Structure formats: structure tokens, C-alpha cells
Amino acid sequence: MNIEEKVTKTLTELGATDAPAIEALFAEVRAAMETERSALISRGAADQRERDKLSKNLRDRWLARKNGMVSLIDENWLNKAPKELKPVVGKRFNELRQTAEALEVEHLLKALPIATGRLVEPQAKLAGHSEIRAEPAVIPRLCDLTLPGYRRELGSIHPVTRVLREIEEIFLGLGFSIETGPEVESVYYNFDALNIPESHPSRDDWDTLYVDERTLLRTHTSPVQIRAMEKYGAPLYIIVPGKVYRHDNPDASHSSMFHQIEGLAVDRDIAFADLKGTLDFFAKKFFGEKIRTRFSPSFFPFTEPSGEVSISCVICDGQGCRTCKESGWVEVMGCGMVHPEVLRHGGIDPEQFTGWAFGLGVERYAMMKYGIHDIQLFFQSDVRFLEQF
Ligand SMILES: [Zn+2]
């Protein structure tokens, strides 16, 4: 039964025989009235005439002496209420009537905005923006300008963003530029073009989040190497910060989403010595001048030769401690000379150009820098954690 039907019945017919049932009925009526009122206000009116008409309709529906909702409630609920329920019905009815009076035309006219599209258009034309569509600019609801404003707490920069920016700054200073690419990537850019064969375990469903057979959430920022080579050719000096995704269960050191920074330098006569010099410089800038770097052989399909960079442990200075598992060294990134096949996929002639690349995990750097032991803390949005930075 809708509210229009309910107001034509008596309380007894509606089964409202005690105070809670009556309160509930009146609450329903008030909610209906408020919904209609706010729907009208948020809708606005095209001009003065429409505004007058809409206001009057709403007012008549609720306050008309004959067949207005309030009159019907007076007639069917209050007048016909059993004697013992009269006090509670009367109290609620008076409140309802007061609320309804807020719908009086004068009140509603103030609140109901008029669209002023026609006023906006000529001004926009004058300013030479004739292509601007005359969207009806709605006058905001009247508000009390003397009330104090809302105070918004200032946030701080997220530790991951902080570290990202710090690393970016170092490479920008070396003449690298920042390049970005899509997070939803094709299998071609994520694997094929990077010389990662079909049989490679990282292509497995268990390691990669696939969208469909040919699309996935990128597992590393390396696809941007190919995209940038295709776009700019050589020489090329870029870093690629961004989010990457893995099919990993969350624990203290794994997250299904994390950030990487990729670096790529392609030029004539680039050798492994350039790679070592640059990354050693970077490590000292980021972790401190005292840091020593160590390069050890590794394997990645897209670099040849490939290496891993370790730094002397920041905690024990190479003496051996729990953080470095007593080895004195902490591995911080992978790197290598760009595989000729990868240069070819990027449209660059490996006979003329060589290059090096590296990749690092940003969260790991932030964890080392700030002594954080659980990667999950970065993504839980816990203010108590975040406000420490
Ligand atoms: Zn150590």
C-alpha cells in the first residue's frame, strides 16, 4: 500500500493500534515529504514560470485544504483515532503540519534554483570561447555565509610516493626523463617483445593476472622499454615508475600490487661500465655515500649479460646482521645489458646501438629506508601508520 492509499484509511484499518506503530506511520509520511522536496530542489527549474509552477504543485499536494495529504491525515487518522491514542496521534500530527509548512511557496521558492544558462552564454562568447556549451549553471542552495567553515586535516605524502619521487629526482638529475605506460598490457609487450618465451614460468596463470588470452595486468614496468623505443628511437634515457601486478598471496613481503621503477639507457657505445657507474652513483645518492655496491651474475630473458646489484648492509655496514642474513650485503635491484633481440623488437638496430636496463621494487626501498617490516602496511590506509611520514 503506498502512502497515498494509507492516508485514506483509518489507523484501525491500517492496524496501527499502539504508539510505536503510529510513530512509524508518521515517520513514513515525513520521509516521503522530504524526498519529494529534495528531489525538486536538486532538479532545479528552467525559468521563473516553471519554478512557480513546481513549487505550487508540491505545496498543493501536501497542504491543499481539500484532499491535501495533511488534510487527509487530519481527517482519517487524527479525527477517527481511538480516544486513548489521540494524544500521541495529535502530537505527531502537529509536528507533521509544521514540517509541511516549510513547503510553503515562499520557502520553497528560495530553495529551488533556476537554471541561468542563457546568462552564461553571451559572456562566454565575448571571451572568445564560443564553443563552450551553455550548460545550465545552477545557483547553489542558499547557505549561511556567517557559519564557520569545515576544517580539513592536511594529509602527508605517502611513503611509497615519497621514495618514488626521491628516486625520480636522482635520475632526472642525470638527464633521464620519465615515461609511463598502460597497466593493462598486451601479452606481446609484457612477454613476447621482451624475449620471454612461451615456456617461461612467469607466463603461467599462477604468476600472472590475465584479463583474457592476449591481455594481462603488467607484471613489470619493462613493457614500457619497448613502447618507448618504438616511440622515440635511440638515443634514449628513461625511467619508468609505475604499478605492477602479480598473482601473489599477500604476506609481509608480497603484495598483488606494488611499484617498480625501470631504467633504460640506449645509445652508441654504451658498455657495462656505464651501467655500473650509474647504479653505483644512484645507490650512494639514495642510501648514503658510505654504501658500497656489488654486482653479481644473474639471469633475465631481456638482458644479456644480466646482473644483480647488492649494497653493503645499511644496518651493520657489511659486518653481518639479521637484516642482511649475516652476509653483509642486501640485494636491491636487477640489471643488465639490453638483449639485442629486445632492441630489435623496439625497432633499434643492435649493430649500431647498445643499452642497459635495471628494475627495482619501490616498496622494498621504502621498507629499507624507514625500517618497515610488513609491505601490507603501505596499502591498509591506516592513518596511525601514514601520519608518521
Ligand atoms: Zn647487516
Model description:
The structure is a single chain. The protein has helices at residues 3-6, 19-43, 48-63, 69-78, 86-101, 105-111, 117-126, 159-173, 187-190, 223-232, 272-287, 340-345, 362-370, 383-386, and strands at 177-178, 184-186, 210-212, 215-217, 236-245, 257-267, 293-300, 303-312, 329-338, 354-361. With 389 residues, the chain is α+β, with helices and mostly antiparallel strands. Helix 4 runs antiparallel to helix 5. The radius of gyration is 34 Å and the shape is elongated. It binds zinc ion (ZN). Zinc ion (ZN) binds next to loops.
Instruction: Provide the β-strand percentage band.
Output: 15-25%
- List the ligand species: zinc ion
| Straight-line distance between termini | 57 Å
C-alpha Rg (nearest Å): 34 Å
Quick synopsis:
Helix content is 39%, strand content 17%. It is α+β, with helices and mostly antiparallel strands. Helix 2 (19-43) runs antiparallel to helix 3 (48-63), helix 2 (19-43) runs parallel beside helix 5 and helix 4 packs antiparallel against helix 5 (86-101).
